[in-house]
Amino acid sequence: MRVKRGTIGARKRRKLHRMSKGFRGGRRNLVRAAKETVNKGLAYAYRDRKQRKREFRRLWIARINAALKQKGYRYSEFIHKMRLSGMILDRKVLADMAITDPDGFSFVVDSVMKK
Q1: Are 20 and 34 within 8 A, CB to CB?
Q2: Which residue from 19, 30, 34, 101 has the highest number of Cβ atoms inside 10 Å of its Cβ?
Q3: Which residues have a Cβ under 8 Å from the Cβ of 9 and sit 6 or more positions away?
Q4: Cα 17 from Cα 115, distance rounded (Å)
Q5: Nearest-5° angle of CA 24, CA 27, CA 30?
Q6: Does the structure show a pLDDT above 90 at 4?
Q7: SS3 for 3?
Q8: Cβ proximity of 22 and 28 under 8 Å
Q9: How is the chain split into domains, by residue range?
């Protein structure tokens, strides 16, 4: 009896080819190479969703530190005193203020460091 390959395998390969769209050469067309590349890409995507958060935090800290150094303060000292004063501003907001609203940032820094 002749058995034709069913739709499940074809569906899997079709999904794989959709995911490997934009890859070069055999990584797009050949099933084994495409599967390896897609799996690796998905692993990188999962990892980098976590790393993106770390990278942004590093960027915000660098920006806050640069703005504080112009005023003669240290980042660690500022964050410590901000916690003690009970001011609730996260690093994202502080970094944005340091760039877009230097006067407001100066006000926050001076009010925290005077206490």
Answers
A1: yes
A2: 34
A3: none
A4: 62
A5: 125
A6: no
A7: coil
A8: yes
A9: 7-114
Cβ proximity of 79 and 115 under 8 Å = no
pLDDT digits (tens, 9 = 90+) for 46-83: 999 999 999 999 999 999 999 999 999 999 999 999 99
CATH of 7-114, one of 1.20.210.10, 1.10.1900.20, 1.10.357.10, 3.40.640.10: 1.10.1900.20
- Tell me the DSSP string of 62-115: HHHHHHHHHHT--HHHHHHHHHHHT----HHHHHHHHHH-HHHHHHHHHHHHH-
Tokens standing for 99? Answer: 């760039």
Q: Which amino acid is it at 14?
A: R
- Write down the pLDDT at residue 110: 94
71-to-4, 40, 48, 64, 65 alpha-carbon distances in Å: 76, 46, 35, 11, 10
The pLDDT tens digits of the residues spanning 23-47 come to 999 999 999 999 999 999 999 999 9
Task: Please state the rounded mean pLDDT for residues 7-20.
Answer: 94
